[in-house]
User: What shape does this take?
Amino acid sequence: MFLFMSKKRLFLILSGVLVFTGYPLGHPVLAGSLGNYGPNISLVNLIPNILATAWIIFAGLAVICFIIAGVLFLTAQGDPEKVASARSAFIWGVVGVVVGIVAYSIIAIVSTALRG
Assistant: This one.
């Protein structure tokens, strides 16, 4: 069953999906090149690319977390231990989303302050 596959295989599949969606092969984030930045490279110019990549990874992990929590709820069949485990997974998923949004906001605020 897909849910019980090894962690290593699941990590490789998710990494491939997240890396190769949303960016063309020549994109600076994937290629490791400097793109159109030229000799005037600064952290302020690189922040949007770093944020875009991190946001894609975060969104993918959040969706996976909620899917797993939903599967745990569906397979609990009224067992109090399993329902508690599913509820815990859901709550930690919500906490992760809130932390991710706050972190993204802090980085965006700092980036805006550095540009202004």
Q: What stands out?
A: The chain has four helices and no strands. Residues 80-115 form the longest helix (36 residues).
